[in-house]
Hints:
This protein is an all-alpha fold. The protein has six helices and two strands; from the N terminus they run H-H-E-H-H-H-H-E.
Amino acid sequence: MNKNKLFLSEEEIKNEISNAQEKLKNGIIVEKTIPDYWTNGINKKLSRKKLIYLSIFTGLFGVDRFYLGKKISGITKLFFSIIGVMVVALIINFKPWNISDVSTLVNVWIFISLSLVVVLSFYIIDIVISIKNPRDSEFRSVK
Length: 143
């Protein structure tokens, strides 16, 4: 088989399938099944509606992650949101710039604006994920 080809011909595909079936018969490779909770398992204890409300109203602080059982992700989200709010508040309150120095003022507000855009984009992505296909800590679907 040529390693530089992007697609295999029909004959090469048939050869690969027959080689795999032969290796399966000889015990060289083993066939495994994917557990149900990875594919179509459902966590009936969690409510999707409640998750959406938590994502919208408390998502910036990671409460929705704690609800799903994702403790490390929730703690990380909580930590970074608190640190981010503190940094922006310190920058705004202590005013480390001179009012006559417009370039520094513009740079500070650009930093604050970009930080806000990044945080809001993660927030919106989290809300979309909680609406479209939420999964708990064991990767089961939430209904």
